[in-house]
Amino acid sequence: MSHDLDIALLRTFVAIVDTGGLTSAGRRVGRTQPAITHQIKRLEDLIGRTLFDDNRRKLSLTHDGEVLLEFARAILKLNAEARARFSAPDIAGHVTLGTPDLYASYILPEVLDTFSRSHPNVEIELRCTRSVQLHAALEREEIDIALMTNQPDFRRGELVRREGLVWVAGVGSAPELRRPIPLAVLPPGSVYRNHALEALGAAGRQWSIRSVCDSIAGLQAAVFAGLAVSVFPRCAIVPNLRCLDEADGLPKLPPIELVMHRKPQGISEAAEQLAQHISRELGDVESVASLVPAK
After folding, report:
1. What pTM did the predictor assign?
2. 95 close to 122: Cβ distance less than 8 angstroms
3. What is the number of alpha carbons within 13 Å of residue 237 lying toward its C-beta?
4. Residue 196, phi-psi category: left (phi > 0), alpha (psi -120 to 50), beta (remainder)
5. How far apart are CA 284 and CA 77, in angstroms?
6. Smallest Cα–Cα separation from 282: which of 148, 169, 191?
7. What is the pLDDT of residues 10-47, one digit of tens each?
8. How many Cα atoms sit within 13 Å of 192 on the Cβ side?
9. CA-based R_g, the chain, Å
10. pLDDT tens for residues 56-114?
């Protein structure tokens, strides 16, 4: 390979892998399907290797494609960090960010790391608790911004992305075979809990709550021990979990909405920059910058 890799070509390549198709990748990067195909051909010519298997039904990477994907993600990450560092306004301040512990553990670490690199003078204080409690804290102006699970009675907020929900059980156990099906759930008022019980009721499945936990750690403990089935977002799936679906006798679940809220009386420039950074980094092509309508 005698030429430098083109960032735009790498971005298109990663978009195809992440979205699973040329059309959806085109929507993400703002190009037509023929243009996407041409870009991949240019990238393959640059490196002298084939990136995708010749399978018209399903896009799958070749070994060389898998190797390039790791480099492409690293290059794009460094490129984004460099651009953010030198284009970001010189701001400083203290921001209190509220979020459930699940999101703090599984989707925010890298996002907060990149923000801290580009805004080293902004101090971030994390407050982790359930979404209903965060919403109340926002109304009391105890926190500046909050990334949380949308609830029917929440005030208007910015839709960051939709996250699929899945039934989970521990590896080496089969609680889904018990009658009634044992459940580990969050306390009343949880959207996860409501979706699970409504779906089981609509499917005519009998259930019994065996564990009520206020955190993802508590739910994981019950599931890993084989005590119950639970409902997790896809971002929280780890190796010790088995995902269950209709083939296991469990009904399909609707996705949840992750929303960004700001305290009613306005926020500082530092807090606004963090809110926009989180929305931009976590958002997908269909949901970012959309607004959740009042319900």
Report:
1. 0.69
2. yes
3. 15
4. alpha
5. 16
6. 148
7. 999 998 988 888 888 888 888 888 899 999 999 999 99
8. 31
9. 22
10. 567 789 999 999 999 999 898 888 777 776 766 678 899 999 999 999 999 999 899 98
Q: 145: which 2 tokens?
A: 């911004």
Structure tokens at 226: 């084989």
- How far is residue 88's CA from residue 289's CA, in Å, rounded to a whole number? 19
